[in-house]
Give the backbone structure.
Amino acid sequence: MNINIFTNNADETRKVGYDIASKMTGGEVICLYGDLGAGKTVFSGGFINYFLPEKRVVSPTFIIVRHYSVKKDAVTNIYHIDLYRMNSPLEIEGIGLSEFMNKPENIVIIEWAERLFDKKPKVRTDLSFEIIDENKRRILHNEYNK
Ligand code: ADP
Ligand code: MG
């Protein structure tokens, strides 16, 4: 699977996040790639708002991991992670990602997933964000099942 999605404003990107979230059943890892300002946090906001409609989602850049308690079917935790400030594999190891990942009650959504290098889980959703112009973005969606 390899799908290109084009959005023309932030709300459309938010909606893409919301729609993808609506298909989650728990245990998923969502990896977000792309430059600063490409729309990863906007997407994450839409994604998390599927579970917590009123929540204002802010970037976890400075705290690295933000936890949301949710209750939707089997899902009870969302971990929103931003690796932007992580400079070495050792630092990333220190976050303890493997403790959150692949638990059926958790969903993990990771900005700057480029920084995971070979630590990316085999089963994951990849979304690569590309800035086309001021308001237009291309989002490449890939599912890896094994
Ligand atoms: P990132 O987390 O990738 O660094 P953000 O989501 O924080 O980026 O910021 C994206 C910025 O681009 C926001 O200011 C948003 O309003 C703006 N923007 C303009 N057009 C779009 C679009 N089509 N999709 C997402 N964001 C957009
Ligand atoms: Mg961001």
Remarks:
- Residues 93 and 116 are 9 Å apart (CA to CA).
- The two ends are 13 Å apart (CA to CA).
- The chain has a mean pLDDT of 95.
- Strands lie at 3-7, 29-33, 65-72, 75-82, 106-111, 124-131, 137-144.
